[in-house]
Each structure stands twice: as structure tokens, then as C-alpha cells.
Specification:
One of its GO terms (cellular component) is plasma membrane. It is an enzyme of class 2 (transferase). One of its GO terms (molecular function) is phosphorelay sensor kinase activity. This protein is α+β, with helices and mostly antiparallel strands. It has four domains: about 1-145, Beta-Lactamase (2-Layer Sandwich); about 290-450, Histidine kinase-like ATPase, C-terminal domain (Heat Shock Protein 90); about 480-575 and about 705-750, D-Maltodextrin-Binding Protein, domain 2; about 575-700 and about 755-790, D-Maltodextrin-Binding Protein, domain 2 (3-Layer(aba) Sandwich). Strand 11 and strand 12 form a beta hairpin.
């Protein structure tokens, strides 16, 4: 029943696996369909043609599957590609329509795609615009496995309960068997009579089988008793004859009569001894055939030993014995057998040949290969032989064919028993000299040569399997890091890692965020760095989404916040709030507004005094600046008003935080917006002219992120470095670096001249995921930068 339940579970598991796959596809297809509709809703036509304003919500919808990479494409049958990734796989034989079409395709990894379209009215007529959105299958596969495992767990519980009921039912239904067992236990051992009764038909066959077994057992016991009776009769007859000869010798009246009687008594004694020996031999052979005594043995040494012992017997005088075994090489005579039983069988064959043959008998013993799988032991003599009609009867117990040389009739019976216990074949025939030819054909084992070859091959395979992997040469490993973080801020981390890993040298190359993204995109496998670190979270997500990162096994002790890790490939390790830096000599501490709306009014009210005194990022050169600016747009409608007032104030644009802080400290700027918080706090701690201001409504928080490229030269060491960043490196960041660690430590909040915990409720982390790809869309980015360029005062960037 358990096997039946298992087979049923196997069938159900196949059906459940397919159901789980379909259910997970339906669930995640809703995300694809929702994203596609969201994109199509933002497609429009105008004087410049068909445009699309990729909605942030579309990528956020796809971000609900946090482990999946995404790709998209917007196109039309009139203008072709509009935006997105070109050359995405298309569904087979499907025309663009308003109904969503879902399909699977490979695009560097297994993807699930949706294609959907809508018609737009243009000056030239109706035009179809389509969107393709693809998502990797990691989330689907995880949900499919979860549904399958949970379903199978429930079925397993139900099956166990069902088996319990089956067990109870079987015990009740098979109660008659216990009655039968009791009846057999109470029966006398000598009672082999039939069991009477009228059992249920379900066990009628069992009762019939038991009765049949008893009949066979009774028959076997009868045969055994007959054999014992035969043995007793043969022994009693032989001993009686011996006693009679001795009695006659004692009654003899002359010495010659007595000598004749004693000679006959001696002959009878020899026959009695031979009979007794053969009876014991048969009992021994029968016993050894019923136990597991077989093991690899070589026939040639056994034959040589038996012949040597036989030739010492005085009865063998005048008998010529030859041995032919030259064709057998060492190892080719290996059989699975019992050396004692084979020796007894050969001794009986030789004794029969000697006793039944003439005085000048010739006995030829041959050991030869019989085909590739057998080896034969052959004994031939020059005696009278056995007629073909009598050969089958000659191997029965107590059967002697030759009356003049009649023996016990057990010799060939013993040989047959040995052959049968060795899976060998006994073949009787006529020898070239006209006598008996007896052949025992044994199944052969592997030859020693073959066995040694197989053993040697197995030893080689074992040595290869257990051999340790080659140890890498103890030479310096250069770990190459490409980063958009100031070298000084990373120095303590790199030195600490080198001290923990002797023989490792960290090679560090600094980039601007945009330049770093371009360098990684253009790098050949030989030029690819081992680790990529950047504060531009969106550009990092873009690189990982393209499939350039390796999944890492970070220790379980690291509990990163959900917003700071994506796909087990991209990891944040610092906490970087966007802060306002101001010159305390130009702006009194505590006078800056607490909310973004009030800040806009403040700049508008002080437009004259702040003219050319506000610093912002040059969004075309700064990836972190573009990230902060686009995330401000996501947060609300104040971004457009901020752009307006900054334009009126003739803001100045900078490439990076360090330049804005330096200009603010000198008084060239009164304030700088959206600077990297850790740099700002570190500068304020060292320069009294600098003040740092955080807002009360929200402060964007980004994390410096790191990943290991697939083409990294030292991926294992790179993974170790990132694990270090997220464990001991957090303490190093808190105590020895100007960067703020991502994970709280005792020293985390000792930043600058105020406690970051006072602003904990206003921190708004930027979440790693597909949503950050929204403003990297080529058209959307171009339109965003075009709108931002209105802040250009006409002066060249600083």
C-alpha cells in the first residue's frame, strides 16, 4: 500500500508541478501585464512623432519581484524602435494586438515576456504601438517550488493518515492469519497433516500454499528417512559381511583356510571403510553446499595437490597419471568455489578411474579453458567406461554400474552434488581410450591479469577522486577595484583587508560615477575589474540588470535592510543621506527652513543675495546628482518649483560633492544642495565655516553599492572583500573612515556636530531594484535633462 501511495504521489507530483508552474506564471504575468498597460498609457503622439514618458510605476510594479532582472522595448510599425532594449525576442507567428501575449524566451537567461499594443491616431493614419517587457524567472521559479513543496507536504500528511487507516483495516481484515499462526504454533513438530478449515477467500491461497508446503515437507522427510534407512542398511550389511568373514576365519581348521578368510575379511573391511568415508564425504559436501562457503579459488593448485597425494598411495602402482594444464595461465583458472568440496570431487573421480580400470590403467587429467567464460576439469581413464544409457543413473546414490568392481555407488553422486553447488555442469562421456570421460565445467571469474587491471584502474580513479586540489602558488593577488568613491575614504578599509589577507594587494582606481558606468560597459573580459563600487545606485542597478554581476553567498549573520540589497548580487554598505551644506558666515545656523516647500520660498525670497551662490550637481556629469534629482521628482510636485527658483537664482553646477563643499567653505557659495552626507559631515567636523543642514520632511538616503562582475579575475577574493565590507568593515567605517556605515554600530551616530538619530524618521532610503531604471530610459532621461537644462545660467560649469 505504501508503494501504491508512493506511485500515486508521484503522479500527483507531476500534475502539481505543472499546476504550480501555471499558477506562478498567472501571478507574475499580472505584473508584466500591469507594467505593459502602464507604459502604453503613457504613449502619445505629437509634432515630433510618437513619444513615451516611461512611468516610474511600471518599474515599481516589476520591482514587486525583487529577485528578477527586467528589460523592455517600445516600438511602432511606423517608426520602429522608440526606446528600450532593441532586438528583444518576439513571439512566434503572433501579430501585434491589444490583447497581451505571454511567452518564454532566452535572452542571456530564461525570460518571461509580454507583448501588447495599442493603436494611435497620427496625421498619417492609425499606427500600432507595441511594448515588450521581459522578466527573468527567478521569482516564478521560487513561487512554483514553494507551491509544489507546500502542496506535496499536505499530500504527504494525508497519505500518512490514509496509510494509518489502511493499517487498521488490514489488521482487522487479516485477523484469520493470526488464528492460522496460532494453530501452527500449537501443532506438534511431527504433525505434517493438512490444515482443515474454511478461511475467507482472501487467504484461501495462503492456506493452500501452506498445505502444499507441508505435503512437500512430508515427502522430503520421507526421502530423508529412506536415505537414513539405506545408509543404515548399507553399513549394517557391510559390517555383517565383515563379521561373517571373521567368524569363518575363527572357525577355520587349517592355517590356509584361516588365511583365505582373513584376506576376505580385510577386503570387506576396506569396502566398509570406503563406504563410511564416502558417506561422511557426501554428508560434508551436502552441508557445505547449503552454507555460503564459496570464495575465489584457483583450480590448478588444487588439482596438483590431489594428484600428488594420490600418487603416494600404493594402490596407484602401475597406474599412469598425466596432467595437462599448460594452456592455463596464472589467473585463468579462478572460479568461485569451495576448495575442500572440489578436492573431494576430484579424489572420487580419480578413485573411480583407478578402481574400475585395469592394473596398467592410464588416467589423464586435463585443465583447460572452455570458451571465454568457463574452465573445465576433465578426468579420462582406460577402463570399461559407462554406457550412454546408464550415465544418468550412474550419478544416483548407491548405484553401481559395474558389478565386478561394485563400490558404494556414492562416488559420482558426490561429484554431481559438488558440481550443482558450484553452478558447474557435470558431463559424462567416453574417453579416447574407451573409458569414462568425466568433465566438470566451472563458470570462470576474472583472470588475475584482468583483475589486476581493473584493480589498478579503480585505484587510479580513487586516487584522482581523493587527490586534493592543487594549491595556488603563494604569490601576491592583486584585487582590482573600480570605484566612484574618494580614495581617502576607502584607504582604511583597504589597508585593514590587506592585513587580514596576507599576500593580497588591493589596487584601487577612482572614477566619476558616469565614467565608471561607461568603463564597465565597454570593458573586455581581460580589463574587467574584480569589484565595482559606486554611489550611483541607478547606474549600478542598470549594470546588474544587464546580467554583468555574479550572485554571492554572503554570511547569514549579515542582516542588510531590504532596500540595500538586490538579487544577492548588488550590496549597499554605506548610509548616505543627501544634505545641504552652507557657509555659516553667509547663512546663520538655524535659519534654513526645515521642509523642501519652505526652502523653495526661502530661495525665492533671497533671490538677490543667493544669486550665483547656490551649488548643485551637473546632472550630465554626475550620476549621484542625477539619482538625487530624479528621486526628488518621484517624491512630489516640489521639484518643478525648485527647478524654477534655482534657475532664477543662476545656480552653479559642479561635478562632485568635494568641489561644492570647497566652494562653500571659501564663501563662493552660500549653500549646496543634495551633497553626499558623509562628506558634508566630515568637512563640517574639520572646518568651522561649514554647516550641515538636514530637512524634517524627508532626506533622501542612498547607499554606496558594490558587486562582483562575472568576468572578474579573482571572484573568490572579491566576494571575500564584499563580505568584509558588510561585517568587520562596518566597524572600520564607523571608527576610521569619514563614510557612514550601513549597519548600526556604537560609533555610527557620532557624525559631525549633531546626532543622526534625531532625524531617523525623516530618512527616506532609495530602494535598489528595477524602479531605478525608469529615469535611465534613453527618451525619459533626455527629456528630464532637457528640462533641467533650463537652470543653466549661461555660465560654464564649475
Amino acid at each position: 500500500m505504501a508503494m501504491g501511495f508512493s506511485a500515486l504521489l508521484l503522479i500527483i507530483s507531476v500534475l502539481l508541478w505543472n499546476y504550480a508552474r501555471d499558477a506562478s506564471n498567472r501571478t507574475y504575468d499580472l505584473l508584466l501585464a500591469g507594467a505593459a498597460l502602464s507604459v502604453l498609457d503613457r504613449v502619445s503622439t505629437g509634432p515630433s512623432g510618437i513619444t513615451v514618458d516611461l512611468p516610474y510605476s511600471a518599474m515599481e510594479i516589476l520591482g514587486l519581484a525583487p529577485e528578477d532582472r527586467v528589460t523592455y522595448r517600445v516600438f511602432s510599425d511606423l517608426e520602429g524602435e522608440i526606446t528600450g532594449t532593441p532586438n528583444l525576442p518576439e513571439p512566434r507567428d503572433t501579430q501585434l494586438s491589444a490583447a497581451p501575449v505571454f511567452y518564454d524566451a532566452d535572452f542571456g537567461a530564461p525570460f518571461r515576456f509580454v507583448q501588447q499594443g495599442r493603436q494611435l491616431t497620427t496625421p498619417t493614419g492609425r499606427v500600432w504601438v507595441g511594448v515588450q517587457i521581459g522578466q527573468t524567472r527567478a521569482g516564478r521559479s521560487a513561487q512554483q517550488l514553494s507551491l509544489f513543496v507546500n502542496g506535496m507536504a499536505g499530500l504527504a500528511c494525508v497519505s500518512l493518515i490514509g496509510l494509518g487507516f489502511v493499517w487498521v483495516a488490514i489488521r482487522v481484515a487479516l485477523a484469520p492469519l493470526r488464528q492460522l499462526a496460532q494453530a501452527l504454533q500449537n501443532r506438534d513438530p511431527a504433525d505434517l497433516s493438512q490444515i482443515d478449515g474454511a478461511p475467507p477467500r482472501e487467504i484461501r491461497g495462503l492456506l493452500d500454499a501452506i498445505n502444499g508446503f507441508m505435503r512437500r515437507l512430508h515427502s522430503n522427510r520421507t526421502l530423508t528417512e529412506t536415505f537414513i534407512a539405506d545408509v543404515a542398511h548399507q553399513t549394517r550389511t557391510s559390517l555383517s559381511a565383515l563379521q561373517g568373514q571373521l567368524s569363518l576365519a575363527g572357525d577355520a581348521t587349517s592355517f590356509d583356510d584361516m588365511a583365505v578368510r582373513v584376506q576376505k575379511a580385510e577386503s570387506q573391511a576396506r569396502r566398509t571403510v570406503r563406504l563410511t568415508n564416502q558417506l561422511l564425504t557426501q554428508a560434508m559436501v551436502t552441508h557445505r553446499s547449503e552454507t555460503d562457503m564459496l570464495k575465489p579459488v584457483a583450480l590448478k593448485p588444487i588439482v596438483t595437490e590431489v594428484l600428488t597425494d594420490m600418487l603416494r598411495d600404493s594402490d596407484m602402482r602401475g597406474v599412469t597419471v598425466t596432467l595437462s594444464a599448460d594452456s592455463i595461465v596464472a589467473g585463468d583458472d579462478l572460479v568461485r568455489g569451495d576448495a575442500i568440496s572440489i578436492r573431494e570431487a576430484l579424489s572420487n573421480l580419480l578413485e573411480n578411474a583407478r578402481r574400475h580400470g585395469p592394473a596398467d590403467n592410464t588416467i589423464d587429467v586435463t585443465l583447460e579453458s572452455t570458451g571465454p567464460n568457463h574452465v573445465s576439469l576433465i578426468v579420462e581413464d582406460a577402463g570399461p567406461g559407462i554406457a550412454a544409457a546408464d550415465r544418468a543413473r550412474a550419478t544416483e546414490r548407491f548405484t553401481s554400474i559395474a558389478k565386478d568392481t561394485a563400490g558404494s555407488g556414492l562416488g559420482l553422486s558426490i561429484v554431481r552434488a559438488v558440481a550443482e553447488s558450484h553452478d558447474a555442469r557435470l558431463v559424462l562421456g567416453t574417453s579416447p581410450a574407451g573409458g569414462l570421460r568425466a568433465e566438470m565445467r566451472f563458470p570462470r571469474m576474472l583472470s588475475q591479469k584482468t583483475a589486476r587491471a581493473v584493480g589498478a584502474a579503480m585505484m587510479v580513479m580513487l586516487a584522482i577522486w581523493i587527490a586534493p586540489l592543487p594549491v595556488a602558488a603563494q604569490e601576491n593577488v592583486s584585487l582590482n577595484i573600480a570605484s566612484a568613491t574618494d580614495t581617502a575614504a576607502m584607504t582604511q578599509l583597504m589597508e585593514r583587508f590587506e592585513s587580514l589577507n596576507p599576500g593580497v594587494t588591493v589596487s584601487y582606481r577612482e572614477y566619476q560615477t558616469v565614467d565608471l558606468h561607461a568603463a564597465v560597459m565597454a570593458a573586455s573580459p581581460a580589463e574587467m575589474p574584480d569589484i565595482v563600487i559606486s554611489s550611483s545606485m541607478d547606474l549600478q542597478v542598470d549594470l546588474v540588470n544587464r546580467g554583468l554581476a555574479l550572485p554571492l553567498s554572503i554570511p547569514d549573520v549579515v542582516q542588510l535592510p531590504d532596500w540595500a540589497v538586490w538579487r544577492s548580487e548588488l550590496f549597499g554598505f554605506t548610509f548616505e543621506p543627501a544634505a545641504i551644506v552652507y557657509n555659516v558666515e553667509l547663512i546663520a545656523p538655524g535659519t534654513l527652513p526645515q521642509e523642501h516647500r519652505e526652502l523653495i520660498n526661502y530661495i525665492r525670497s533671497n533671490e538677490t543675495g543667493l544669486n550665483r551662490k547656490i551649488g548643485i550637481y551637473d546632472l550630465r556629469r554626475s550620476g549621484i546628482g542625477y539619482l538625487f534629482a530624479t528621486q526628488d521628482v518621484v517624491q512630489g510636485l516640489q521639484s518643478s518649483r525648485m527647478t524654477e527658483v534655482l534657475t532664477r537664482a543662476n545656480v552653479r553646477k559642479f561635478c562632485c560633492t568635494s568641489e561644492m563643499i570647497a566652494a562653500t567653505a571659501k564663501g563662493d557659495l552660500a549653500l549646496s544642495i543634495n551633497t553626499i552626507g558623509s562628506y558634508a559631515l566630515a568637512a563640517a567636523a574639520q572646518d568651522d565655516r561649514i554647516g550641515v543642514h538636514l530637512m524634517s520632511d524627508y532626506n533622501l538616503v542612498m547607499a554606496r553599492t558594490a558587486f562582483v562582475p562575472k568576468d572578474a579575475q579573482h571572484p573568490d577574493m572579491a566576494e571575500r572583500f564584499i563580505a568584509f565590507l558588510l561585517t568587520e568593515g562596518q566597524t572600520v567605517l564607523a571608527r576610521e573612515s569619514e563614510l557612514i556605515p550601513l549597519l548600526p554600530t556604537a560609533d555610527t551616530f557620532a557624525a559631525g556636530h549633531f546626532d543622526l538619530r534625531d532625524f531617523a524618521g525623516s530618512f527616506l532610503p532609495i530602494k535598489l531594484g528595477p524602479g531605478l531604471l525608469t529615469f535611465l530610459d534613453a527618451r525619459k532621461k533626455a527629456e528630464f535633462l532637457e528640462g533641467w537644462d533650463t537652470t543653466d545660467s549661461g555660465f560654464p560649469p564649475d
